[in-house]
Amino acid sequence: MILANALFGAWLLSAAPTAMADTCQGPIDHPGEAFSYVQPINTTILSPYGHSPASLPSPNMTGNGGWELALLKAKQFVNTLTVEEKSWMATGQPGPCVGNVLPIPRLNFSGLCLQNGPQCVQQGDYSSVFVSSVSAAASWDRQLLYDRARALAEEHKAKGSHVILGPVGGPLGRSPYNSRTWEGFAADPYLTGVCMEETINGIQDAGVQANAKHLIANEQETQRNPTFAPDANETTYIQDSVSSNIDDRTLHEIYMWPFANAVRAKVASAMCAYNRLNGSHSCQNSYLLNHILKGELGFQGYVMSDWGATHSGVASIDSGMDMTMPGGFTLYGAFWTDGSYFGGNLTRAIQNGTIEMSRLDDMIMRIMTPYFWLGQEKNFPSVDASVGPLNYDSPPDTWLYDWKFTGQSNRDVRSDHNDMIREHGAASTVLLKNERNALPLRKPGNIVIAGNDAGPPMQGPSLRADFEYGVLAGSIGSGSCRFSHLSTPLEAINARARKDGSLVQSFLNNTLLTTTELTWPLWNPQQPDVCLVFLKSFTGEGEDRTSLELDWDGNAVAEAVASHCNNTVIITNSGGANVMPFADHPNVTAILAQHYAGEETGNAIVDVLYGDVNPSAKLPYVIAYNESDYNAPLTTAVYSNGTYDWQSWFDEGLEVGYRYFDAHNISVRYEFGFGLSYTTFNLKDLKPKCSAPSKLTALPAKRPTEPGGNPALWETVYTLEAEVSNIGDVDGFAVPQLYVEFPSSTPTGTPPSQLRGFDKVWLPAGKKRTVTFELMRRDVSHWDVTAQDWRIPVGSFTFKAGFSSRDFRAKYDVTLIKA
Ligand SMILES: *[C@@H]1O[C@H](CO)[C@@H](O)[C@H](O)[C@H]1NC(C)=O
Ligand SMILES: *[C@@H]1O[C@H](CO)[C@@H](O)[C@H](O)[C@H]1NC(C)=O
Ligand SMILES: *[C@@H]1O[C@H](CO)[C@@H](O)[C@H](O)[C@H]1NC(C)=O
Ligand SMILES: *[C@@H]1O[C@H](CO)[C@@H](O)[C@H](O)[C@H]1NC(C)=O
Ligand SMILES: *[C@@H]1O[C@H](CO)[C@@H](O)[C@H](O)[C@H]1NC(C)=O
Ligand SMILES: *[C@@H]1O[C@H](CO)[C@@H](O)[C@H](O)[C@H]1NC(C)=O
Ligand SMILES: *[C@@H]1O[C@H](CO)[C@@H](O)[C@H](O)[C@H]1NC(C)=O
Ligand SMILES: *[C@@H]1O[C@H](CO)[C@@H](O)[C@H](O)[C@H]1NC(C)=O
Ligand SMILES: *[C@@H]1O[C@H](CO)[C@@H](O)[C@H](O)[C@H]1NC(C)=O
Ligand SMILES: *[C@@H]1O[C@H](CO)[C@@H](O)[C@H](O)[C@H]1NC(C)=O
Ligand SMILES: *[C@@H]1O[C@H](CO)[C@@H](O)[C@H](O)[C@H]1NC(C)=O
Ligand SMILES: *[C@@H]1O[C@H](CO)[C@@H](O)[C@H](O)[C@H]1NC(C)=O
Fold first, then answer.
1. At what angle do helices 417-427 and 142-159 cross, to 10 degrees?
2. Active-site positions?
3. According to the model, what pLDDT value does residue 54 have?
4. Which residue from 50, 68, 213, 608 could staple onto 46, CB 3.0 to 4.6 Å apart?
5. How far apart are CA 429 and CA 801, in angstroms?
6. Can you give the pTM of this predicted structure?
């Protein structure tokens, strides 16, 4: 998705008419016409990833799996449309929302409003800012994920959004330098898959369509779009977007995995990504869209382009893309473009037989079936007039259609969601270090607050240009939010301290805190009971991170304060991983990673600091000792001028995140799944609930495809249980986790531990309970590239249960398939 408020490079231009179609994508040559920008691919350079194999034609939807009735309604609707209406339904238009499908008044069809984003109603005044997706993932709490999504969708619906452009299943976080990890969930396909499913269920149960994005392997921002020469209105192609080159097994077991969960949750739509996959643009990669998404996974909804990710008409349509966004007649940055590969060109292509009418009908049925399935034709709230002027993608002066607004404007859609957001903010704060009983605080008499992340933003809470001052509770880009209110740590701690009668002194200027001229200690009296240091990393769409250090010299601020305060607590607000050298400082007694925690960030951190909430969140990625310890660096430059030279080789295969650190025995500062509590838990007696099934076959029985693929993959084949106990003296949530070590017969490259189950359970002090881990067929299978199916390998599995990816308390060995 594009940035709402800033011009970040070439996406603006990527719909320019000189873009080419991939030659491998089937019948796409129509010389001299709009669809004919075909350039030869130099296979010497690209081999073996010259392009994805063609997979044509695009499968028709069937309605299988619960959409049968809605499909009938969609068919009837399509039968009443003219070809022009059909073409424009597949083509966006400037209008009040980020994406708009035109109304058809004669059919009482009010059009479709597609809105950002995964954390809020981006264009919503009087709306809430929820915890970011990475925060939600860190909670490891299915109910939290569902509740958050449902409340978010209720607000969207009340503002008139039919479609939420989220959740984000990619970037997955192959590299911690990716700047959109906060919009996604976890650097692990299993956890991300669960998060996708819960979020989609929450959104769609509220009657709003979800959109699984970005398909696929959009793992870096650098060169995510083609670059153009700054001449001839920047229409000359210099270099194409980066190609993520991924082998078949890795695609299935890592990057596609969470999208399979999304499809299984009956997600209404999927968004094809900016980057190429194996040399072919994601939005015209027929192998990806036709073969894998619509074929293998049985996806029944529609594929829409990321904003400006369409590079062809016929090629994209034949390859399985169903809707182009933002579509026609759109203001691109500084100038207008009046063209769309779809729209009128699509009508002409139908009329002259280049595209079959049945393909266009399938596109519209895919778009309208979720609409009817969710009952959006009945009493759906009108688009709130107030969203239009807040729309930076197509502001009102770009509108061509005379959009009519009914109903109240500036609707307050917040309800009492702030209570939930505060709870979620605390539930998603990860306690990484806690020594000398630093936390929870016990009515400290003398508090120092330090760091530029503690106070209010100095340039307003939304869409700021400069993020130096103020707590980071969200970020920029299509996932950005408009805060209606923001609880800052400074304000929340002061309020709490006033109740306790504590003294509070604050020092919010990082530059000042790190100058040498300063006379330390700054505070008086000289020994504070606690120094709370708020630091941050700014990460946002469009520009990858170049460092994993805290920004604005955060590490130096931590060191400076800690060298004068023997009880220094560091709190970070970051979009993903930071290296934390200060963790070794003896005066740093506690560390909390809060990520981007939404509008109640200040109150939420007070709840954790003061022990009103016992922390229970766990890292959804690895914190390494050194930046250089991470693998899979981004492709940040190419040293040749060829059009297709931007290649990102996913040669690490399955060794993504903790899988890599484990495979190479690299010690880490804080491992995936790690997070402390104010109490202590134990886990023991991992054992099967019932004996291993005797009739299990290595390959699943072939059954008709449903959303998610072969339904046999989602069936429980084996269940383990373990006993978890709270052996400390504080009530709290435990997060028992189950990892699998595959048998030695599994093809090489299989990581030593892979998450395959988790639960979040409430345990009062001194209590114990049994937790169960249900393993589905997919969980104990690997993708067999020869069989093109999921295979349970022969030999002995080791299941490992505990409280992180490196803290196993019990193991169990079992053979599911005998040699
Ligand atoms: C393709 O790339 C190779 C390697 O860079 C080069 O030697 C060859 O001339 C190129 N072929 C064409 C047709 O450009
Ligand atoms: C990408 O190329 C690799 C290597 O040839 C192949 O294993 C994989 O199936 C391809 N995937 C797609 C989607 O083209
Ligand atoms: C889709 O259905 C139409 C009939 O409605 C049929 O003509 C066409 O061949 C089908 N396409 C595919 C790919 O099965
Ligand atoms: C549109 O709505 C009007 C008023 O409710 C109704 O009379 C008319 O039949 C509807 N038309 C269609 C095509 O549904
Ligand atoms: C650039 O765009 C402007 C405005 O649309 C147009 O007048 C001009 O001819 C264009 N120049 C080129 C070189 O395409
Ligand atoms: C068809 O596509 C061409 C090339 O992108 C563009 O110039 C033209 O405006 C398009 N026509 C319509 C009706 O969108
Ligand atoms: C059909 O129309 C499309 C869109 O205008 C054009 O690209 C294509 O060349 C036309 N094909 C024929 C055979 O006329
Ligand atoms: C922060 O401190 C530096 C160094 O003393 C100073 O130059 C700067 O103006 C201060 N910033 C603000 C916002 O006060
Ligand atoms: C820890 O803080 C105390 C002040 O409370 C200071 O005297 C001491 O030097 C600090 N230790 C280190 C290692 O900086
Ligand atoms: C910090 O130092 C003071 C004495 O100056 C001591 O009373 C206090 O316990 C120390 N705090 C910690 C957390 O070690
Ligand atoms: C981190 O990297 C530095 C420089 O390469 C090295 O000296 C240090 O030992 C590394 N630390 C750890 C814990 O690996
Ligand atoms: C790329 O092209 C530029 C301009 O023609 C040239 O100066 C540069 O040397 C080229 N770089 C490479 C690596 O070929």
1. 150
2. 306
3. 86
4. 50
5. 23
6. 0.92
